[in-house]
Structures are given as structure tokens and as C-alpha cells.
Specification:
alpha/beta; five-stranded antiparallel sheet; about 25% strand
């Protein structure tokens, strides 16, 4: 039985020692280099008495940063990824919460440490990997480790503005990688194109399957995502055949007419998630890549990545929502109504998740953890935790889950309960609209719609009057040059609200 994520690397290494594991435009690391460097880092941390505690990895996005993650795990610790792209105040708050004794940095981030008030010991990555691995010490660390020991903390934005650190263990990550790999059919020939920052759990889709199968991951430069043609050319140049991206990264390509100039020639597997994929945009991708597999993924960070999947195998109407499908093996989904009872089949309810996939909760915040990691109200005979996602869904006639909305995005307007997502979907259907975002001003009782694209506001308003009932009509429409997104690619509704209030 596998109990440690590093077993993926150790089992793959003898088979493909000289194959490139992780690469970008500046560095390529083979599996042999990855293993040697990770063991050196683990040895260095162990020699300094760092064990069973958080170790911050504050580096530029690179194969070296990924390598540092595995080195921290070899030391019997858990890594906390930070990045120079993160706002300074966020880095400061995270360091204040953790008060870490150890931090791994690079030549770019080392000079910045003083401004964040870091008081622990800083290890330069290039120095650490010169350490001679102590195999006996590493073996001793491994013997003490259990599969319930933590391996990382990733921080999400808290509702109060204070970041929440979500702690995951070996067992939940192994469970996720095994199920994801089976669902998407990864193999030794898989070449991933990574899109997300390394300080989000989304990158798990590439990191650990690369170790498990001996595949290769290319870290796609952030600059490419501002130039769709350049992005597709990058995929072709590196023969990338598998991408697991947020929807906005995909629609940025299809909505701007990129396929008229260049098409992805090597893509075979496309997984998407985090947002609803507008069917109009999805259809463009399907027409360009008729032989590729497309899979919709759903899941919260608190349940270690993704929890549900749907292989898109049929056509959809423009106003349909592509289902999020069914839970991974060994994952349980319960839909609870407002009375904590199971929602009748076909009726909406809050998605609640149970199983090995659940993370350990929020680091140092037991009260916050207890709010959403709760006893299963349907199980009264013994303790069983569920995670309450705050997402609303229902089952369709095929038995697949269909995402409806966030609880936060359901509004009461003019006496009617409205899903902001329904307004967004209808707006996105209009020819020339590229992206859409909708917010609600509770104080003034106004629905505010933002969009990008070469369409006049009056023209769009007239179209929506024909499609939507009066109580769903946006009270204000604003055209933007660019839709704001969070660092992991989701629509940034907080930024839209700030624009509206400015």
C-alpha cells in the first residue's frame, strides 16, 4: 500500500532517469536531477533540526520551485508555496500566520525577505542542492511518516480578507492522483502544459501524475496567456498533449478568433474547471479538436483538488450547462437542503463532500474549520465529517450533477430568487461578446453586468430584454477592455465590485 507521495518518484526514477520531468524556457530537470536535488534539500533541513513543520518555498515559478516542494517532503515537513507574483500584504499575512523557522528562496526572492519581516533561516535553493544526501537519515524520516501526515498548505482568500491555509496529507493527495489519472488516462507519454500558479492546488494535476507515470510538464510562461496565438504556438512547439486549465484560459483563445490563425496540433486531452464553460465557446474547441477528449472537473481546494468529473460526450444547447457529472471513486457527494435533509432527486441542494479526499482543515484556525467541516447530519450513529462547499447543484435526468450557483451568487431581486450565472450565460450567447461577469448591489438593489467584446451597450441591452424576464434585466451595463481574473484564472467578482464602487 502506498503511503507517501514520494513513492511515485522513487518507483519511476529507475525507469526514466534521464527523461525531462519539469521544464520551462530557462531550465529542464530530469527525474535523476529531481531526485538528487530533493534528497539534498531534505538532508539539509534534517541536519538543521527542521522536521514536522511548515517550510515556505518563496521562489519564482520554475522547475526549481517544484523541486523544492519535494525536498521539503523528504525532510518530513510540509511545503507552503509563495510567489513573487503575490501581493506583498498577502505574503506578510501568511508569514505572520505561519511564523516559519525555515524558508527556501532563490536569487530573485532572497533580497526581498527583509521587507516581509521574515525572522527564520533562509536557504538558497542553489546552495541546498549541493548538500550530500544522507540516505540513512532520509530512511529514518520515512519510517516515522504516516499517510495522514501533512505535505502542503495552500492559502485561499478568506471572506474576512485574512488568508486561510488549507492543509492536505499524503493520503488525500494519493487518493486524488489515482482517481484523476484513471479518469483522464495519463501515461508515460503525457506532456502537460501547466497554466496555474504553483501556490494553488490546481497544479497538483500536473505535478504528481508527472512523477507517477514519468511524464513531462512544461510550465507555460504567464506572458503567453496575454497573446492567444503565441499561447497555441507554444503548445505546438513543445508537443503538449494534455492541459488541465481554468475555463477563462480556454475561452480567451476561442473568443478572440485565434483558431482562424493557428490551431493546437498535438492536444489530445483537455480538462477544464473552476467556472462554467459557455457552450458556444466549448463548441468552437470541439470543432477544432474533434478527436480530443474533453472533461469537465469540479471540486474545492478543501477536498484536495477535484471531486467530480464529466466526460463531454454529447451536444448541448447554447443555454445548457455542461454537467459536473459524478464523483470520483471513493468520494461521496450529498446534496443537502436548507433543513439539512437530503434534497429530493432533481431538486437543488448544497454540495457536501465526504471521503478520503477531505483535507485536514484550516491551519491554526479550528473555529473556521469547524464551520465547514461538520458532522454529516444524515449519519447519527458515528462520527463522519463532510465538507460543506457552499455550491448549489442538482441531478439531471441522466443522473449527473449539474452545477447551479454559489450560495453567494444567489440573490433576491424584485421578489424573485435569481442566479447571476443565468444572466451571464444569456449575455455570453450574443455574437461579439467575449466574456461576462455579473454582480449585485444589495444596498441599491441593482444587478450590474460587465462584459468585453465589440458590442454596443444599447445593442446588448435590447438583446437581453428579449431573452430575460423583467426582474432579471441588468440595471447597469458596463463595457470593459479586459475582464479581471484572480491569479488562478477565475472571474474576479471582488475586482468588479471595486470597479462599480469606484
Amino acid at each position: 500500500m502506498q503511503t507517501n507521495v514520494l513513492e511515485y518518484l522513487e518507483q519511476t526514477l529507475p525507469r526514466v532517469p534521464n527523461k525531462t520531468a519539469f521544464a520551462d524556457d530557462h531550465m529542464q530537470l530530469t527525474f535523476a536531477q529531481l531526485s538528487g536535488n530533493a534528497k539534498a534539500i531534505g538532508t539539509q533541513l534534517h541536519a538543521d533540526g527542521i522536521y514536522g513543520e511548515p517550510v515556505v518555498v518563496f521562489m519564482e515559478k520554475s522547475p526549481a520551485a517544484i523541486n523544492a516542494f519535494f525536498g521539503v517532503i523528504y525532510a518530513g515537513c510540509y511545503y507552503v508555496p509563495l510567489d513573487v507574483e503575490m501581493p506583498a500584504f498577502r505574503i506578510e499575512m501568511i508569514l505572520e500566520q505561519l511564523k516559519p523557522r525555515a524558508l527556501i528562496c532563490d536569487a530573485v526572492t532572497q533580497p526581498q525577505l527583509a521587507q516581509y519581516g521574515f525572522q527564520g533561516k533562509a536557504y538558497l535553493f542553489d546552495d541546498c542542492i549541493q548538500t550530500e544526501p544522507d540516505e540513512a537519515a532520509l530512511a529514518m524520516i520515512r519510517r516515522k511518516q504516516l499517510d495522514i501526515d501533512p505535505i502542503y498548505i495552500v492559502f485561499t482568500s478568506g471572506s474576512t480578507g485574512v488568508p486561510k491555509g488549507i492543509l492536505a496529507c499524503h493520503r488525500s493527495v494519493i487518493d486524488y492522483i489515482e482517481n484523476l489519472s484513471e479518469t483522464l488516462g495519463f501515461h508515460e507519454g503525457t506532456v502537460f502544459g501547466n497554466q496555474t500558479p504553483l501556490y494553488f492546488d490546481a497544479c497538483l494535476k500536473e505535478l504528481f501524475p508527472t512523477l507517477k507515470f514519468g511524464g513531462t510538464t512544461w510550465l507555460v510562461p504567464k506572458s503567453c496567456f496575454s497573446f492567444p496565438i503565441k499561447l497555441v504556438e507554444y503548445l505546438n512547439e513543445h508537443k503538449i498533449n494534455t492541459i488541465c486549465w481554468v475555463v477563462s484560459a480556454l475561452t480567451m483563445i476561442s473568443a478572440t478568433g485565434t483558431f482562424k490563425t493557428v490551431k493546437p496540433e498535438t492536444l489530445e486531452t483537455i480538462a477544464f474547471g473552476s467556472e462554467v464553460f459557455p457552450v458556444k465557446q466549448f463548441r468552437m474547441w470541439r470543432e477544432v479538436l474533434p478527436n480530443a477528449s474533453f472533461t469537465n472537473l469540479y471540486g474545492p481546494t478543501e477536498a484536495t483538488g477535484m471531486s467530480c468529473y464529466y466526460h463531454v460526450n454529447r451536444a448541448f444547447e447554447d443555454t445548457d450547462a455542461i454537467p459536473i457529472g459524478r464523483p470520483f471513486r471513493n468520494t461521496g457527494i450529498i446534496l443537502l437542503d436548507e433543513n439539512n435533509q437530503e434534497a429530493p432527486y432533481g431538486e437543488p441542494g448544497e454540495i457536501c463532500i465526504r471521503g478520503t479526499c477531505l483535507t485536514m482543515g484550516y491551519y491554526g484556525q479550528p473555529d473556521k474549520t469547524a464551520e465547514v467541516f461538520t458532522q454529516n447530519p444524515l449519519q447519527t450513529r458515528y462520527p463522519e465529517l463532510i465538507y460543506r462547499t457552499g455550491d448549489i447543484a442538482h441531478y439531471n435526468e441522466d443522473g449527473d450533477l449539474v452545477f447551479v450557483s454559489r450560495k453567494d451568487y444567489q440573490i433576491k431581486h424584485m421578489g424573485h430568487r435569481i442566479e447571476l450565472g443565468e444572466i451571464e450565460i444569456n449575455c455570453g450567447l450574443y455574437e461579439g461578446v467575449e466574456s461576462v461577469g455579473c454582480i449585485y448591489d444589495k444596498v441599491k438593489g441593482k444587478i450590474v453586468l460587465f462584459y468585453t467584446g465589440q458590442v454596443e451597450k444599447a445593442e446588448l441591452a435590447a438583446y437581453l430584454k428579449e431573452r430575460l424576464p423583467r426582474y432579471m434585466q441588468p440595471n447597469k451595463i458596463r463595457q470593459l477592455e479586459e475582464m479581471p481574473h484572480t491569479p488562478n484564472g477565475k472571474l474576479d467578482r471582488k475586482a468588479l465590485t471595486a470597479m462599480y464602487n469606484a
